[in-house]
Amino acid sequence: METHLILGILLSVCSLSFSQECRQQLVEDVDFPGSDIQLVFSPDVNHCQQLCTQHPACLFFTYLPADWTQDDRNFYCFLKSSPSGQPDVQTPVQGAISGYSLKPCNPNSKPCLPQLYNGVDFPGADYRALFTEDVEECRRACTQDPACQFFSFLNEVFTLDNFRYKCHLKFSWPVATLPVVERKAGLVSGFSNKVGTFQEGKPVCPGNLFPNTDIPGNDILVLPAASPGHCQNLCSAHSACATFTFVSDDFNCYLKANDNAMILTAKDGVTSGLSARFCWPDNSWVNAALEGVDFPGNDIRNERIDDAASCQRTCNKDANCQFYTYTTADFPDRNFRRRCVLKRSITMPAPPGVIKVANVVSGFQLRNCV
User: Fold this and answer.
1) Phi and psi dihedrals of 257, rounded to 5?
2) Which class for 11: exposed (0-12), middle (13-18), buried (19 or more C-beta within 10 A)?
3) CA distances (Å), 122 to each of 5, 40, 171, 304, 349, in order?
4) CB atoms within 10 A of CB 291
5) Which residues in 161-185 are b (16+ Cβ under 10 Å) and which e?
6) Among 295, 282, 109, CA closest to 190
């Protein structure tokens, strides 16, 4: 992270106070124009508000619902932010719904999403399909499958009769993912001790790693990862990952499918291993402080703190924090030394798309519901 870059980030984060008023109410027929930071898709305004709450920078939003008629932007959720933390403009727009992040309200990091959406499809993100008696059975299948985050069900009057009663199980990341991992002097990065507990309640297993070993081929996805343990965590959370390889030089984590054979090849600076989807592997990687490593972006707030260990404890205590970067006393810009920057990513179910389709019903897993 260059000095001028971190300066801009810290100044912008400093201006966004998390002591804001908790505002849960929605504002109907009102648009908060401009200030967009990301467009995501959402089946209803409550889900859109939860996405804004989990997004590291979102402070308010505007949502265009299923019955939006001015153009074809149904289900658009515009995540927004501003230096003041408030929308600069509020414009009357028939059908639009706006609101605020629930970050100041101590929100649940794993919200329950019980709503079923008739005539709505979540296209993409499929990893498994099966036939079920009805949509409730499809939802039960999703809830009982640890990889499933949401689903779409083709009901008994779906146009193509060969596909009636088909239940499509779908995946999105339930664990923290990093946008970038880089080597930078004067920085220490690490994780909250909460991020490794997505398999809570499962038996502990060794989570064996193969140092200086590559598993070539069968890559399905490449993600930034901080360590071999973090890479294994990502593989274990992904529905299709069977093995992985972590390259320490560039912090790349290669998730790999099962090709009915596993070939191990000696290679320096590389660590490989197996998915631990059905158990809870050693999560000591969560507690490790990574010196000279930066997790740029995804900032939620920052404060001055004496050392990196105190920064991690601050992250542990903050319900919104998943990972952090700490600027040490040796950081090049003395004005930003000993700064603890708390960070997060979205880990709630987030469909890659939402569209209207007749005789399709979609919804979310109920594992987070009481």
Assistant:
1) -85, 165
2) exposed
3) 37, 13, 11, 43, 11
4) 15
5) eeeebbbbbbbbbbbbbbeebeebe
6) 295
Q: In angstroms, what CA-CA distances link 300 with 53, 150, 256? A: 11, 27, 32
Residue 343 near residue 322 (C-beta atoms within 8 A): yes
Q: Could you list the pLDDT tens digit for every one of the 370 residues in the chain?
A: 344 334 344 434 444 444 468 999 999 999 999 999 999 999 999 999 999 999 999 999 999 999 999 999 999 999 999 999 999 999 999 999 999 999 888 787 789 999 999 999 999 999 999 999 999 999 999 999 988 999 999 999 999 999 999 999 999 998 889 999 999 999 999 999 887 655 555 677 777 899 999 999 999 999 999 999 999 999 988 988 999 999 999 999 999 998 788 999 999 999 999 998 777 777 788 889 999 999 999 999 999 999 999 999 999 998 889 999 999 999 999 899 999 999 999 999 999 999 999 999 999 999 999 7
Q: What is the DSSP letter of 156?
A: T
Separation CA 283–CA 193 (nearest Å):
9
Place of tokens 């959370």: 237
The pTM assigned to this predicted structure is 0.86
Provide the 8-state DSSP code for 333.
S
> Residue 316 is encoded by which pair of tokens?
């542990």
Amino acid at 109: S
Strand partners, 207: none
Helix/strand/coil for 44: coil
Q: What are 360's strand-pairing partners?
A: 154
Residues in the chain: 370
Query: Six-digit token pair at 242?
Result: 């069977």
Count of C-beta atoms within a 10 Å radius of residue 229: 23
* Cα Rg of the chain, angstroms: 22
